[in-house]
Design brief:
Elements lengths: L1 E8 L2 E4 L9 E6 L2 H25 L8 H18 L5 H9 L9
Length: 106
């Protein structure tokens, strides 16, 4: 059995390699450029909606410089770190994954 690559084009799969006989050929389907474009458009739309939502909730963010935003973010990060029950983010991640050796609520 020969294995070849193909991409979706609409509802059809276009083979990326030439094959002599299609019967008995296994096709590994890759994302088409159209699927990638759709994914990018969805990501951009999501980013736009989040940005609009933040602008409505906190309009002053729109007028802050990068330096001011970074300072506020750092201040918030320090506040969160003080209240965290983990010494670092790796320990928190282990706990969230339920890995042994991490802290436990039990």
């Amino acid at each position: 059995m020969k294995r070849v690559k193909g991409v979706y084009e609409g509802k059809m799969v276009r083979l990326l390699e030439r094959v002599d006989a299609k019967e008995g050929t296994e096709v590994e389907v890759l994302f088409s450029n159209g699927a990638r474009k759709d994914h990018i458009e969805q990501s951009e739309e999501l980013h736009r909606r989040i940005k609009e939502s933040l602008a409505k909730a906190m309009p002053k963010l729109l007028h802050m410089s990068d330096k001011e935003l970074r300072a506020d973010f750092d201040k918030l990060s320090r506040k969160i770190a003080k209240g965290a029950s983990f010494p670092n983010w790796k320990e928190a991640e282990r706990f969230m994954r339920g890995e042994r050796g991490g802290r436990s609520l039990r």
